[in-house]
Design brief:
By secondary structure, this protein is α/β, with parallel strands linked by helices. The chain is 45% helix and 22% strand.
Length: 445
Amino acid sequence: MSSSSARRECLRISNQLRMSDERLDVVIFGATGFTGKYAVQEAQRIHKDMPFTWGIAGRRKEALQSVLQEFASNSNNVKIIIADLRDEVSLRKMCQQAKVVVNCCGPYRFYGEPVIKACIESKTHHVDVSGEPEYMERMQLEYNKAAEEAGIYVVSACGFDSIPFEMGIAFTDDKFSGQVNSIETYLSGWLTSDVGGAVLHHGTWESALHHLANESELAALRRKLYPDKLPEFKPVLKTRSFIHRNPASPGYSVVFPGPDLSVALRTQRFMFERYKVRPIQVQTYVTFRSLWQLTKVAVIGGMSTVLSKCRCGLSLLTKHPKFFSWGLASHEGPKEEIMDNTHFSITFLAKGWTEKLTDPTDQYKEPPNKELVTKVTGVNPAYGLTNTTLLISALMIVKESYRMPGSGGVLSPGAAFAKTSMVDDLMKYDLKFEIVSSKIKQNER
């Protein structure tokens, strides 16, 4: 172990020892919000199998007590902490009582940074469910060094965006038994009942709108974050046609505009720079079961993209989610019955070689000779599974930081948790990882 690695390891151990007794394992901040309430409910469920100390935080004590009574009535010794985003002192006091802050206060573009600053100042780890690339990459650019020096991990995208996706890539890579060159992912979702109503809460809708409004910031941000380009690895993964069909994911597929791709690219660059591992080329798609579904979402997306570019249009979209989303989003959020009957799958199509080369920058002389198809499936992705993955992410830091890279930093989920037991833990809570098929070309056997 090098001297710098030894220093990082000593920092990690001392930080863990310092926080071992006097702090709660987890504090859920924003517990009275839509996502926060379900995080409280999930904390109670996970606590039965995996005991940990925890508390909840927010602005009003009465509201926090009400959340506990409704969503965690069977939990004892849950501490209530008063903290306000507008009060830096209260944020620091909250962070000083936690090993990990689970931040449920979005949109993170507006409300995330003060919590991260308080966590770094208090040497407290931080996880959230942001799906906002601009926010996540700006936090990495501005706070990665400070987080490393403080010995704490800051990990965003710990919900449905993007734990199933990132852990699915890690699972596929682990099961490939060779060198993966590329992975194409196909997200599909469906309802198993005819109950109508919104499937998204307006907070999720608003975060997506602000991403559309500010996506032009990403190019300049990434030039600062990654001034040096990665080597080109061949064969280059090409993006498929606008609308296409793939037998592995029945229906009509298009490029997925969500944050998963940007998160994956951060992970793959990190793996190359930290571990000298050949980066996996990734492309993401979403599959619709009918052309009508695809057309409906395309119209909503196109209209939202145009309107979000001006302040007036963005205001209208934000204030009237139900109208502009054609009922897909609302201020009330989805009904319990809709959430419980919403299913999803992500199919991973991996191509590569049966053998690894000695140096990760070496180029293969032959085309890929192996294919592996895997799948991740689950229920209630947006708000049920999201809170499962969020709490499991926090607990991974508490119990398995020794399996995480370095002593801290602002990391993507794949970079943070690929070497932990997260997949095994997630499979205990209704998330299924499986191998669908594996094929090696006959002339390479």
